[in-house]
Amino acid sequence: MPMMDSYSTDVYSTLLQESVFTNHTVGVGENDLTDVRSSLITITSLILTSVITALVIAANSMTLAAFCVEKRLRTYNNYFVVNLAILDLIIGLLLPVGVAHSFLDRYPFSKPICRVLGGIKNGITNASNVTVVVICVDRHRATFDPINHFMSRSKRKATLSISLTWLVFLTFWLLYYTAWEFINDFDNGDHCVHWDAYNSRAFIFNMILIFYLPFVLVAVLYLQILRKIVDTLGGKSVGRKFDEKKAEISANDRTSEEFLEEEVTSAVMPSVVVAIESTQGKEVEHSSPETATRKDRAAGNKPVAKRESMTESRKATRTLLFIILSFVVTWLPISLINLLYTIEPRLIVPGLSYSAYIFFGWMRYANSLLNPLAYAATQPLLRATILDMMRCGRCRKVASP
To answer: What's the rounded Cα separation, in Å, for the pair 119 and 299?
Structure first.
């Protein structure tokens, strides 16, 4: 990357410096401060940012409340959804500081708080984006190795992977971002400007870690998942393959017939999991391998290899798709703008107004709003639970004798 000249450095420190809360007047000279404030900090912008903040907090709070009151939602796959909802809620709780900053025309807290919240913001954001990667990795294994994935998965392992994500990225950003500013006594100014805003290489590294690396991993993993599903479903339907194979065995050989049903189903769609009870030949869903084994033993059935149910697999895959779309649509515009600007400011500055830049900067926070909408759209039980809570249905049930 070429070194920035004096013009680029001035524009860089004027236009691109943004904190977690999208500081609208960062790095602007005193003579221009009034003009920037009058053009950007308007009643409309304050209303819009306030509405976005309120919706993010409300939507993720309702999602978490639904998981608290409805035990059937506490499945293995939904543990990752709960984690994303918690991360998005924290981001929403941080956004009011940005709204206050816009209204007051200065950062409302002290410099130490600015430094700490900056590290927390980047850590939470990074953990949120990496959680999407973790979900993709889990779906990838469920698609390519369904039996082992199902037999080895557990809520404890999901919780462990989630905890490690929090620990790694919060620790890294608090040390790399916050501790550095304390050690060097960096001057954050009146608008909470962080040190990477003056260092193009550091800024690019931060963008890669927060967005571009997760984006590439998610794209590669999900494309492989889709290709696998298309390949396995591209020929004949499950029923046709089953009928063709079934004609080759004896109609009286029930054991072979049951084995064939399971074998053909797994061959056609390995990401879809079917558990077949050996005595009745019915499809049943099991929340975990341990639960399935206990039920089989209690019923006197022979244990069989079990995998995710078709419903669970479809639901998890759809939810992941919606999460990825939300992630890409909300994060890609501002990430491309920042990358191009850091490489060469003239590629962005002449054609992009500061108001548009602020809009795209706030657009990424809409990701924290679209995620809970994705959960509700792909999970009918979650949607019904939220609607029931909004109607106070559960309150009436508890109050009734």
So the answer is: 54
